[in-house]
Structures are given as C-alpha cells and as structure tokens.
Write a structure and sequence with these properties.
This protein has 10 helices and 15 strands. With 311 residues, the protein is of the alpha/beta class. The strands form 5 sheets. A 7-stranded parallel sheet has the order 3-2-1-4-5-7-12, with helices on both faces.
Length: 311
C-alpha cells in the first residue's frame, strides 16, 4: 500500500515516517525539505502551490494520504494571519482538489486540532459532534480546514477523515513550544552552560499532553481502520499544569533554577475542553500507551545529549 505524507519533515512527520515504515507502508513525502529517512518518492514543494501538490499526487498515485502540512505555533497566528490561512486552509483545499482529480478513491486523513473546540466546554468531555468554537486565528484556520475536508467527504463521496489531537510532545520538538523550551533551558543549566533564571509563561495553565509516538500510531490506525466522513479526537487521559511539567523536568535535570515570568510567553488562563476519545478507541482500538513521565524523561535525555554534544 502506498501512502503520501505531507509536511513530512515537521516534528510529527519525522515520527510518522518511522511509524509507517515499521508497518511496511511504501511512502512518498511532500515537503520543502527532503526527508531524513529513505522514502519511495520525495516531492519538493509548498502546500500553497496547487501545481506542486497536483504533481505529487499525480505521480505518486497514493492509496492513502496523511496531511500534516501546516503552521502549528499558535502565537504566530496573530502576527502572520495571512500566511496562516494560506497554508492551513488553501493548502488543504489544494490537497483535496488534487486528490479529487487524480486519486479520488484514496483515503485521506487531514490533521486538525483540539483547538477547534475553543474554550466553551469547561469541566466536561467533548465529543466530535459538539459545536466548534475556535478562539484564535490558528483555531479558526484549523476549523476551516477540518470542515472543508468533511465537506468533500459529503459532497464528493471522497474517503476523507479529520483528526483533532490535543497538544503532543516528544524528543526533538522545537524549543518555541513550552515543554521543549523548559527542557532546553534546564539542560543548559545542568551542563554548566547557563546560570540565568528559567523563563516561563503562565505555569497555571492546564494542558493535555500526548506523546507524539502515540499520536502517530493513532494516525496510522485511523488511515487503516477509520471511517470516512468522520472526525476523531486524540488525547491522553491526564490533565496537568505547566507547573507540574516544569517541576518534573527540574527533577530530571537535577537543577532548581529561579523562575522568571516572560510576558512574551505568558498566555492567560485558558479553559480547555477535555476530549472524549471513545470513538477512536471503538473504531481502531487506539489508546495512549506512553505515560507522561516517560515522555518527559525521553525529552530531557534527548535535549541533554544535544546540548552536551554542542559544547
């Protein structure tokens, strides 16, 4: 079976390539950068370029596609909204049109986000049929792509699904994200590279963190067993504060730095919906398998090795 992965060189894409190769999929990759691992075909291109996207689909003729291409850092959504919508919405439209023309029978998983639900479900589990209420530009762009994908399933009978994952973390994530930023700063302190206070945002914010390795397993199972025309939540079973994350990483690093609030990183308390994952478990058998402490230990080990290697 042939699979096309867009955004193959992003944080999640690199893990997804390994997951799919482990399960013997023949892979094609679409990205601005070449893949680090061997894939059957590599197509260099920008998801905003509809001709490049069409060329990749026409030449690879995939049986399935997992669409990861997109802008993913929420704070950037306020400063670069035009590009955000072009990449996340027009890029998804380009992909869907390319498949409608050249591979209409392929199964497609468009990666959305739990951000599409917004903040209006405090204290209760949110199911896929609940109304979307995006609360920032990033969430609006993801909701538009999500709903466009499901529209193509209804309007054209295409085998399209969407996945709505919670925050996912793991070794190799960019330090622009909170958990990776904490780990990077603490690793530098632990190796003697810095004695400055650690800079943080709002440590009282609560998040649901899922290991990226569990997330890509969910994507593979959805492309193998998920039902076209459906949306699927993906999340772990645990809600924690960023303070808990920082304290756990401090213990792993063996340092106790002074904490300094960085207003550029500070985001007000944002009640997040708790995702109900009954549907993905029922349809695919997926459940998260990696506990949070293991994820944080692996993140710190990878960052520590990288920091030491650079000294």
């Amino acid at each position: 079976m042939r699979a096309l992965i867009t955004g193959s060189q992003g944080f999640v894409g690199r893990y997804l390539i390994r997951e799919m190769q482990t399960h013997k999929w023949d892979l094609s990759a679409f990205d601005l950068l070449p893949p680090a691992a061997d894939v059957l075909n590599y197509f260099r291109g920008d998801i905003q370029d509809k001709f490049a996207v069409k060329n990749a689909v026409r030449q690879s003729v995939p049986d399935v596609c997992i669409h990861l291409s997109g802008m993913a850092f929420v704070p950037d959504s306020w400063s670069n909204a035009e590009k955000l919508f072009s990449v996340n919405v027009i890029g998804t439209l380009n992909l869907l049109e390319a498949f409608r023309q050249y591979a209409p029978g392929a199964k497609i998983l468009v990666i959305s986000s739990a951000e599409v639900y917004g903040e209006h479900f405090p204290g209760r589990f949110v199911r896929e049929q609940d109304a979307l209420a995006p609360a920032n530009h990033y969430a609006v762009s993801k909701a538009a792509a999500d709903q466009t994908a499901l529209l193509y399933a209804r309007q054209y009978g295409m085998r399209v699904m969407t996945a709505r994952p919670s925050n996912h973390i793991g070794p190799g994530q960019s330090p622009q994200f909170a958990v990776a930023s904490f780990a990077e700063q603490l690793a530098s302190m632990a190796t003697g590279g810095s004695s400055r206070p650690i800079k943080v945002g709002n440590l009282e914010n609560t998040r649901n963190f899922t290991d990226v390795r569990d997330v890509v397993k969910a994507y593979r199972l959805l492309i193998e067993k998920g039902k076209p025309g459906e949306a699927y939540n993906i999340a772990s079973v645990r809600e924690v504060t960023l303070r808990f994350i920082l304290e756990t990483l401090c213990n792993l690093a063996g340092v106790r730095p002074k904490v300094e609030i960085d207003q550029k990183r500070f985001r007000p308390d944002e009640p997040r919906p708790i995702l109900d994952t009954t549907k993905i478990t029922a349809d695919t058998g997926w459940k998260p398998g990696i506990d949070l402490e293991t994820t944080l230990r692996d993140i710190m080990a990878e960052v520590r090795f990288r920091v030491q290697d650079s000294m």
